[in-house]
Amino acid sequence: MRGGFECGAARAVLLAAVAGCFGVLLARPEASTLPAAQTRPIPLVPRDGAYHVQPGESIQEAVEAAAADPAVKTVRVHAGTYRPAARGQALVWLSARHDGVRLEAVGEVVLTAANPEIADRTALSFPAVVNHVVYLGNGVSRRTVLRGFRITGANDYPADALPLGPPIEPALGSVPALKEHRFFYSDGGAIKIFGRSSPTIERVEIVGNFADPCGGGVSVEQRGFKDDSPLFRGCIFRDNRAAETGSALDVLPHSAVTVEGSLFVGNLSNVGSRRATGGQGASPTNYNKEHGSGALTVFPGARALVRRSTFTGNWNGVDDRGTGSEYSDSLLWGNTAAGGIAPQGRYEIDIVDGRGVRGCIIRGGIADLRGSIDRAANRFEAPDPEFDDHFNPRAAAFAGVGYRHETTAAN
Question: Cα dist. 107→77, 81, 149, 170 in Å?
Answer without folding.
Answer: 8, 11, 9, 33
